[in-house]
Amino acid sequence: MSSFTNRASLPQAEEETISETKTNQQAELYQRFANSVSSLPSAEGLSHLPLYRHNQGWQGSRMCIAGAMAADACFAARPSDIVIATLPKSGTTWIKSLLYATVRRREHPPSDAAAGDHPFNSSGPHECVKFLEYQIYTGKKQIKDDDIDELPDPRLFATHVPSVALPASLVASGCKIVYMYRDPKDTMVSLWHFANKLRASEGLEPLPVETAAGLFCDGMAAFGPYWDHVLGYWRAHLARPDQVLFFRYEEVWRDPAAHVRRLAEFVGVPFGAEEEENGVVDAIVRLCSFEHMRGLEVTRSGTTEFAVGAVENSSFFRRGGVGDWASHLSPEAARRIDAITEARFKGSGLNV
Q: Which long-range contacts (CB under 8 A, 24 or more apart) does 342-348 make?
């Protein structure tokens, strides 16, 4: 929602009044969207909240769908923006930290972390790169347009919504999108752990892993079905490779330095020869590693505010790595997920 007058010429009191009015309007708009979501079909899913079916075919909680609708109505994207897109539990925290550390490396060198001066020492990755639908356009703690406008270029945002639900201004702007996906079995197991943690906080019974796997296969997970989400961004990448970067979690995990270089090149801040000689790429990889981030005090004891409320930062650092699904899924559940993946990805050029 762009400014509707020349703010530079206004007295401070009038500026504050205009800003407050716009914030209230956004909150009212969000509430109208939330009310409309309540009329959509809903069912229990792989979540601690009921999942509603958006008319575009994806599932989400009342808050996340309302937030996505509010973002579509209010967000004014810039061509210089960079947006991370993922499904939940697909390496979102990691790719957020890698992007932030790469883009902001000149004002916040990774070497600052040792002295406790890097933003990661006081703010988790989800505070540094906020979700449009979960942290910015919510009915609770609105972030004002003015605050968004004043973010330094390139502005960094994140979203979990499928490609069909991206804000119209974002698509039209031609801004950069960085997408990362993960093996569906590991995605499902990580989502199951996270959902049960939230269910426990609400006094709900945990979901058995086989039940969770069935819900996942049926597409009853937030922002799912998984396969629609991945294929949507894959096709966007094929159509506009200069606008949509496509990463596979397992490949980033095997060679993070190479992917950090690709990321930097894609967003227009490639590493120079001097940076390469000084080991800046490797320093970013170490800064953003699971071991380092999990050991930070802000991770161990801090929280991040989302539309659902305050979530412990430690919840985003359960395990990391590849192949944890084998410790939890039955062979039958794994085969079912693999069969769906093979059928849905056949002919697309995608591999898992």
A: 344/227, 344/231, 345/227, 345/231, 348/231, 348/234, 348/235
Question: What are the start-end ranges of the E strands in 87-155?
Answer: 130-131
328 is catalytic: no
% helix, strand, coil for the chain, step of 5: 55, 10, 35
Condensed to tens digits (0 to 9), the pLDDT of residues 236-265 reads 999 999 999 999 999 999 999 999 999 999
Query: Around Cβ 118, how many Cβ atoms within 10 Å?
Result: 20
Cα(281)–Cα(261) distance, integer angstroms? 7
Residue found by looking up tokens 């985003």 in the block:
316
Catalytic option among 48, 126, 160, 193: 160
Structure-token pair, residue 156: 């960094």
Instruction: Say whether the peptide bond before residue 154 is cis (omega within 30 degrees of 0).
Output: yes
pTM over 0.85: yes
> What is the rounded distance in angstroms from the CA atom of residue 352 to the CA atom of residue 343?
12
